[in-house]
Amino acid sequence: MFMTHGCAKLFGEGPQPVMGGMTAINIADLVSWPLPMEVNALFIAGVVEFFGGLLILIGLWTHLLALLATFIMLMAHLTAHIAWFPTLNNGELAAEYFVTFC
After folding, report:
1. Is it the case that residue 4 has pLDDT exceeding 90?
2. Phi/psi at 26 (nearest 5 deg)?
């Protein structure tokens, strides 16, 4: 399930793949040093979800990737899915993944 959400972010499912997704939140906003190119948070989440899910599936670096996935899901919940009722904007899935990888 984790990999399928990453695949949808990277390769596009629906009208907004990585190219048109969360372009307002980028890494330069999260850290103070600039990157050589625009890398948005949705791309990083997609890479972690897809390739991290694949590596967890085959059993490589599970502890490190679970920690990274926990951080990604926490940031997804606090930035993209924050609302009074997360069930209305699909935030419950980010919360479930966060608890699963803790």
Report:
1. no
2. -125, 175
